[in-house]
Design goal:
With 141 residues, the protein is an alpha+beta fold. Helix content is 30%, strand content 31%. It folds into 2 domains: 2-51; 55-137, Immunoglobulin-like, CATH 2.60.40.
Length: 141
């Protein structure tokens, strides 16, 4: 739905760029009125898609900050902590535990000192909550 709306809005934008300015009885040019309508439709679509969120966000911190984060099992580089990971609801359904929380693939934090911390799996407690945070801590201080 939102993809079709985006394509429609993009087509309208392309059409508007070739419009001539024509005066209307209200005094606003047609192009201005159409742009106002276009902006309103865009804001409405952003509000609707945000209200019907279909993702879970996981912010991964490290203590101390700046650890290199990788996924356990694949070694995929996630960058330096903190990082934000986004999971689609449809991909999480298969990973719901008996306690109602999702379990996602673990993360390894590696600091320049050589210290390593692993959290595997990572529980996303309260499946109805949309934002989750975890902190991996260096065992060496």
């Amino acid at each position: 739905m939102s993809g079709l709306l985006f394509i429609w809005l993009l087509q309208m934008r392309l059409r508007l760029s070739s419009c001539r300015l024509v005066a209307t009885p209200e005094g606003l040019p047609v192009k201005s009125q159409l742009l106002t309508l276009l902006r309103s439709a865009l804001y409405l679509s952003l509000f609707v898609t945000g209200a019907c969120a279909t993702t879970h966000n996981l912010t991964v911190h490290s203590d101390p900050e700046g650890a290199t984060l990788t996924t356990v099992g694949t070694g995929g580089d996630l960058g330096l902590a903190p990082v934000l990971l986004v999971f689609e609801d449809s991909g999480l359904e298969a990973y719901m535990g008996d306690d109602g929380s999702y379990r996602v693939r673990g993360i390894e934090a590696r600091w320049q000192s050589g210290a390593v911390d692993i959290m595997d799996p990572i529980p996303l407690c309260h499946a109805d909550q949309r934002h989750h945070e975890v902190t991996l801590e260096s065992p060496v201080r």
